[in-house]
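Question: Hello, beginner here. Any chance you could explain the protein record under this note? Any guidance would be welcome.
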Amino acid sequence: MTDSHGAFLIAGLLTGNYKAQAQAPGFNTTVQDLNYDASRPSTYNFTLNVGSVSETVAVSAQNTLLQTETSTMGGPVNSTGRNYAKLASNSPGLLPRWTVSASGSLQRSFDQGKSWQTVDVNVTPTSSASLEIARESRAKEAAKEKDADKKLLKQKIASPVFRAVSAAGSEVWAGGSGGALYHSLDAGNHWTRVVPSSSGTALTGDIISLEFPDSQNGKVTTSTSEVWTTGDSGQTWQKQ
């Protein structure tokens, strides 16, 4: 224990020879050999000299978001409340893989093929025909178009049997039975029905092969040996 002056008081120590040591952070340690007599009080003073003071700063490395050696960017992503499909349309590193199942379903995977989810191209259908209808604004046909829209909403559109899929970045093309050809600009979130045609002739047969090496150029092959090509992302087509 200590007194009011901060001096240490030791009671109950037997007579004998002792070695006492005093130390404090930043000072040299002082050691004294003591010949202690329990029959009389004794005071021992310790002088501590300033020692070498050093300071250690610990730095823990963290994952960098910008790699100076490569063009790779990355960081942790919390999946809670996130939509991977929406992330994929803006993040090249999250673009899904695509395949067609044995039963003809269009599928994509966000975990390098560990699991697959079936994609329904008719969840938010946007066909070329509906786009044309949307552009019409003639007043005399407004009522007729309104009725047609109601019927279209009630109509159940069966998903085609897919036989081919091709992806270039976030753009995806999928084709199958009955000449069904669908195009997505955002990794499969929204789809547009495309009908290749040229000079009054439209594509026939089932689509069995798709080749789209980039966002502009593509080739479609059908079961009737037709080959259709485009050089402007499906805006215009040429029959080979």
Summary: Residues 228 and 239 are 5 Å apart (CA to CA).
